[in-house]
Amino acid sequence: MSKIALITGATSGIGEACAHIFAQQGYNLILLARREDRLAKNAHQLEDKYAITVKQIIADVRDKNSLSAVLEILPDDWKNVDVLINNAGLSQGLDPIDKGNTSDWDTMIDTNVKGLLYVTKIVSNWMIPHQKGHIINIGSIAGKEVYPNGNVYCATKHAVDALSKAMRIDLLPYGIKVTEINPGMVETEFSIVRFKGDEERAKKVYESFEPLIADDIADAIWYVVSRPKHVNINDMLIMPTAQATATIVNKNS
Ligand code: NDP
Ligand code: 8X3
User: pTM of whole model > 0.70?
Assistant: First the structure.
């Protein structure tokens, strides 16, 4: 039986890139996201290209009841998940605290923190009887530093940092590895989502330097997952060469 990876946020960016690299390595995939058309397109492409099987889960990680319903009806052999990539996440807005939009705050906290927790609770309970598994949490440089107007997004990624450490402790008795991957600036749909569809503004974020691409992060995740059984990489901070900190970027380099 092939190994299985469950990837949240698999319709674009880092999640989509992870789906390709794991499929290339022969993993069967459970891909979860909200956009049905894009998920179906990705799933069919992956099945055709890599001769693997893909289960599509249309779900919003914020909705704990329907999330549980769609995951728990998977057949038992699909619950033997080897790798969970908690990738679904987003930023909404870039404003100081006093001007922040409170529904944007709810969206970020509900997705990046509570959604990650809901998925982890379900899947870690599937892993425990097998006494193995690997959970990859996508944190961020925003979980290591705080930058102007990043307030709530940074707080959610600091929470992912704390939860990754907590999961590593709690799941230790079961042989489950926990790794946190923390990217700097990666050109995906992230900034388009942050700026609510303003593609011009999003494009400017990555102008005049070479940002990371989603494949760079997927490649690092594959490296982490492919270490021997007795080796766990706890934490990785991966930056573009042109980025020193969350805010210091060597533009025109
Ligand atoms: P993208 O916007 O390209 O991808 C985000 C993915 O998350 C999409 O597939 C989206 O799918 C999914 N998603 C968002 N909200 C939900 C939800 N409520 N339920 C289910 N799926 C959801 O951005 P990235 O690939 O860049 O982001 C992936 C992760 O990487 C995020 O956690 C982000 O915070 C983190 N990150 C990104 C960095 C960057 O510079 N790009 C840097 C550091 C970390 P759909 O809309 O179909 O549901
Ligand atoms: C995304 C990183 O610094 O572009 O997590 O907001 S940043």
Answer: yes
